[in-house]
Write a structure and sequence with these properties.
Pfam families: Cupin_7 (PF12973). It comes from Pontibacter diazotrophicus. By secondary structure, the protein is an all-beta fold. The chain contains no helices and ten strands. A six-stranded antiparallel β-sheet has the order 1-2-3-10-5-8, with no helix packed on it.
Length: 108
């Protein structure tokens, strides 16, 4: 039988990334990352880029990337695909939780 990795939703502790931004690392293996980010109302994650594509799924709240269509708001169920090298940052006027997956860590 294959080994199955999992995270119990009731158990993980959120780690601070920056003021108002917390994360839970769901999977961190060479070449692949899966992270939940929780952004407090009015806070954000700094602008950065990846050398590989970056994907975002909005789980709850409102996610805003000021670089997408002048700061378009994306609600729960929205999906964004950032091609490799695309600078982006995450903000939220209401607070949000997003699932981020990519193949490595930010380069800057």
């Amino acid at each position: 039988m294959s080994h199955i990795d999992y995270t119990d939703g009731a158990a993980p502790a959120w780690e601070s990334v920056s003021e108002g931004v917390e994360k839970i690392v769901l999977r961190a293996r060479p070449g692949e990352n899966r992270v939940l980010l929780r952004i407090a109302p009015g806070k954000g994650y700094p602008k950065h880029a990846h050398s590989v594509p970056d994907e975002v799924f909005v789980m709850d709240g409102i996610y805003v990337d000021p670089g997408v269509e002048g700061g378009r708001e994306f609600g729960a169920g929205s999906y964004l695909y950032y091609p490799a090298g695309t600078e982006h940052n995450a903000t939220s006027p209401t607070g949000c939780t997003i699932l981020v997956w990519n193949s490595n860590v930010p380069k800057g």
